[in-house]
């Protein structure tokens, strides 16, 4: 595979579930070294976009390019070699061990008759180490908590060793320590410029801390795109989420912090 | 500081260093030769026992010698009565082999259906394959047209057409958009099964002279076994089984949901169609020679899963061995308990199967699927 800078290029994509339009003319791109955050309210099309670029749902319109290749011309296995997905709330087989599930990430690398070999175990091992899931390897999925399962799924995507990571709420069910660790891991994976990531992140503050760029979806359309500061403005949060929120700068990173105004009285930031 | 430590850990060098306590061995990096050997030994023992026991009891060693004598260049049967040789070779061996082949086929098909549908209740009867196959075979049996010519019979083909029609009907009825949700497929399968079963009963009543024979066939059994019948079924069941055995690892990946399997590079719809086609062909071939024998396809894969775990790379071959052994022994019981008459083997499989199944279920309350 050549090494084009563009990992993902989405142009004017539309997707519908029956009569319901889920994506309507979405364009965005992810290049190597970049972590792009996908934000927007529930049902705005974040998950659908990840499904569309891995050909789980059919495009009604538009094109998707993975590492420069048109999605329509790629086999399912080629797609999996280019993009690894961390789905939201995935179904996992309860009786399998965490290691068995992580090794399933090696599927696109293996032919029909092949069994996992040393290289595959090594990839699984690295992925388990990276997600702090090493101790879970021998345990059955049924015995794991929600956050532990999520780490196993992230490890599976790492073991897949695809240049593009597509993450749908990668920190769901995780405690704050593992949330930070997983996002730091994604950043560190992309830092060397070999990989890039598109992450749907619900928590706007977390998204602002961990992404180079944000793309905000609303009703299937891109309504804002750019550095976190430009995207997360109180006016836009009101317009898109219908929420009153206070946005102020993180004292150390200078990135925006979003706090919903629960009490209904917007208190000025003390900073 | 925790964050730092964790992100550094992805560096392969650091990760390699931290390998201190070794990770558990690769799941089935090598074939599970031990348990396959055990299963094969049990199957052989059951086959010899079933060939030896009957109205004329033949010693076990004589049975083995008679069978081995058929190998070129081996003559161990010197001095044994010709009647024994005829009983073993013409009567019991084809029956034992047919029971083994049907048992292996039904268990393999059951394990495959359960894997494809991610549903512990899926089995050849529930999704309509076996009732559809039985309906088509009954239609051929009551028609005045001859259906068998020595080592060839149209019965398996008719059964396959019926089984495939049933599963295809269920599949398309259950289709929602581009996907086929498991629950709707099972519901559609049950509906099709009910229709096929009623139509089979109706066809049998049309041919009142032969209703008893047909009923005995539908209830399932091996009393009509012969080398010819083995030749009817083997050309379909054996290749279908060979294909299914290749798909163990893919079936493991299908235990994730369809979306994840697809995102891991599996062409989900095409793979499912191939697996369902092969297991339906094998099931139809089995039904065409043995009628409907329940419980093997449901209970055997469950038992194997409970004892040896869920990895399909061992679940599929072990289900075949255990299914063959189980049905050979069940058929032996069917011949022996009410001598000189026979009990339909389906009654035996349910009678033995249910308590065993309940015992296993009690023993392992944890998720086994």
Account of the protein in words:
- The complex is a heterodimer of chains A (271) and B (369).
- Chain A is an alpha/beta fold.
- Helices cover 31% and strands 27% of the residues of chain A.
- Chain A contains nine helices and twelve strands.
- In chain A, the strands form three sheets. Chain A has a six-stranded mixed beta sheet, sandwiched between helices. A four-stranded antiparallel beta sheet of chain A has the order 2-1-4-5, covered by helices on one side. In chain A, strands 11-12 form a two-stranded antiparallel sheet.
- In chain A, a hairpin with a 2-residue loop joins strand 4 and strand 5.
- The longest helix of chain A has 16 residues, at 176-191.
- Chain A is globular, with a radius of gyration of 19 Å.
- Chain A starts with 5 loop residues before the first strand and ends in an 11-residue tail after the last strand.
- By secondary structure, chain B is an all-alpha fold.
- Chain B has one domain: ABC transporter involved in vitamin B12 uptake, BtuC.
- Chain B has helices at 2-8, 12-17, 33-52, 60-68, 82-117, 129-142, 155-174, 182-206, 211-219, 227-246, 248-254, 258-263, 268-290, 296-308, 312-336, 345-363, and strands spanning 148-149, 152-153.
- In chain B, strands 1-2 form a two-stranded antiparallel sheet.
- Chain B is globular, with a radius of gyration of 23 Å.
- The model of chain B is unreliable at 1-21 (pLDDT under 50).
- At the A-B interface, helix 2, strand 6, helix 3, helix 4 and helix 6 of A face helix 1, helix 2, helix 11 and helix 12 of B.
């Amino acid at each position: 595979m050549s090494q084009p800078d563009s990992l993902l290029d989405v142009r004017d994509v539309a997707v519908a579930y029956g009569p319901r339009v889920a994506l309507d003319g979405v364009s965005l791109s992810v290049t190597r070294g970049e972590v792009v955050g996908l934000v927007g309210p529930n049902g705005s099309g974040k998950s659908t976009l990840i499904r569309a670029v891995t050909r789980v749902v059919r495009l009604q319109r538009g094109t998707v390019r993975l590492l420069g290749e048109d999605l329509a011309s790629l086999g399912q296995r080629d797609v999996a070699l280019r993009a690894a997905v961390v789905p939201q709330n995935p179904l996992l087989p309860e009786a399998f061990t965490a290691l068995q599930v992580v090794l399933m990430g090696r599927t696109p690398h293996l032919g029909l008759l092949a069994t996992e070999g040393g290289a595959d175990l090594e990839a699984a091992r690295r992925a388990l180490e990276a997600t702090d899931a090493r101790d879970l390897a021998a345990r059955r999925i049924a015995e794991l908590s929600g956050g532990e399962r999520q780490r196993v799924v992230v490890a599976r995507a790492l073991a897949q060793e695809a240049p593009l990571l597509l993450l749908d709420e990668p920190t769901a069910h995780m405690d704050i320590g593992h949330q930070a660790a997983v996002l730091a891991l994604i950043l560190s994976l992309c830092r060397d410029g070999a990989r890039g990531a598109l992450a749907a992140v619900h928590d706007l503050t977390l998204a602002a801390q961990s992404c180079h760029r944000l793309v905000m979806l609303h009703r299937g359309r891109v309504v804002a795109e750019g550095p976190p500061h430009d995207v997360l403005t109180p006016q836009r949060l009101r317009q898109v989420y219908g929420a009153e929120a206070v946005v102020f700068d993180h004292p150390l990173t200078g990135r925006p912090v979003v706090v919903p105004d629960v009490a209904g009285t917007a208190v000025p930031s003390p900073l | 500081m925790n964050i730092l430590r964790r992100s550094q850990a992805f560096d392969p060098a650091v990760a390699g260093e931290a390998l201190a306590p070794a990770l558990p061995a690769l799941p089935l990096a090598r074939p599970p030769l031990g348990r396959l050997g055990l299963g094969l030994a049990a199957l052989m023992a059951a086959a010899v026992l079933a060939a030896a026991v009957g109205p004329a009891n033949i010693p076990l060693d004589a049975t083995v010698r008679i069978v081995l004598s058929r190998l070129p260049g081996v003559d161990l049967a010197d001095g044994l009565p010709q009647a024994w040789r005829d009983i073993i070779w013409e009567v019991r061996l084809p029956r034992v082999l047919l029971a083994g082949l049907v048992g292996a086929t039904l268990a393999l098909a059951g394990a495959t259906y359960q894997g494809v549908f991610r549903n512990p209740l899926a089995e050849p009867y529930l999704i309509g394959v076996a009732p559809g196959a039985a309906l088509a075979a009954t239609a051929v049996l009551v028609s005045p047209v001859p259906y068998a010519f020595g080592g060839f019979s149209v019965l398996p083909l008719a059964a396959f057409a019926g089984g495939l029609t049933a599963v295809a009907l269920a599949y398309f009825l259950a289709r929602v958009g581009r996907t086929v949700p498991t629950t709707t497929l099972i519901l559609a399968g049950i509906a099709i099964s009910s229709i096929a079963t009623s139509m089979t009963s109706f066809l049998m009543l049309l041919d009142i002279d032969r209703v008893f024979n047909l009923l005995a066939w539908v209830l399932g059994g091996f009393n009509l076994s012969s080398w010819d019948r083995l030749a009817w079924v083997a050309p379909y069941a054996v290749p279908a089984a060979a294909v299914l055995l290749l798909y163990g690892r893919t079936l493991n990946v299908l235990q994730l949901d369809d979306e994840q399997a697809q995102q891991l590079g599996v062409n989900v719809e095409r793979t499912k169609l191939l697996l369902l086609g092969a297991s339906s062909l094998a099931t139809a071939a089995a039904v065409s020679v043995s009628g409907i024998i329940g419980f093997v396809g449901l209970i055997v894969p469950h038992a194997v899963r409970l004892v040896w775990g869920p990895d399909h790379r061992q679940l599929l071959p072990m289900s075949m061995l255990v299914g063959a052994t189980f049905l050979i022994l069940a058929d032996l019981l069917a011949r022996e308990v009410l001598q000189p008459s026979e009990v339909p083997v389906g009654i035996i499989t349910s009678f033995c199967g249910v308590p065993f199944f309940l015992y296993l279920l009690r023993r392992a309350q944890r998720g086994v699927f």
